[in-house]
Amino acid sequence: MRTVAIAGVGLIGASFGLALRNAGFQGTILGVSSQRSIDQALERGAVDRGASLEEAAGTADLIFLSQPIYGIVETLGKLDPMVRRDALVTDAGSTKTVIAEAARRSLTRCAFLGGHPMAGKELRGAAAADGELFRGRPWILTGELDHPVARVLRQWIGLFGAREIILDPETHDRLVAWGSHLPQVASTALAAVVGDQSPGSAQVAGPGLMDMTRLAMSSFDLWGDILDTNSVAVGEALDAYIARLQAIRADFSGQFAKGADFAKGLRKPPTSA
Q1: Is the pLDDT of residue 271 over 80?
Q2: Per the domain annotation, does 272 fall within a domain?
Q3: Are residues 183 and 53 in the same domain?
Q4: Cα separation of 113 and 90, whole Å?
Q5: Are 200 and 176 in contact (CB under 8 A)?
């Protein structure tokens, strides 16, 4: 793998470029993004230079799509005439079913390996990028795992310190509705209700409110696509969460015990297979 193209050089895209460099990648990294994002990524050392989508797709062994979900779908619709036949397209989209279907429809000349690194921040942009962002985090893959470039990519993911998890798109979307999307919506709802009903609480807030509302700083420009493309699974998770909030009034002790057990388990290091 000599050339990597990153379409969407924001937080995740630029962090991918930095992670490659930190892990020893010596090839060329091209960035396809706005000029502002390219300038930030160049300053951070995440890309070597900016390029058009046509130039990057025609040159790269690996094309990493790190845009909002509908941006990824739109790019997939344009790529096929541009890509090399031995290339691999992968992505970092937070839902997989819509993207996998778009790849099946659009890509005939090259392979596709869907991906979702379970890492991020409430901040956006290449200026916030971190080459260690993926360390210790799951990296979900779905698609053509045995393509030659896919095998190389999987080696780099291991060098990033990420944990590879293989899922089909539908299972991925169902699980992340609970493990990622529900926490975002819950944090947003908490911040909104406290802000509306008791804004003076900010004067006496402890670390609990700060911790619980961190995700509420995330941008709807990103999350709108996620919630729209996983609306059924997120709706089911929300219904269950609302029901549990209502039930906790009658059983504080039992719900605290259940919650504590899960939270403690979540913080244990993952066991190797």
Answers
A1: no
A2: no
A3: no
A4: 5
A5: no
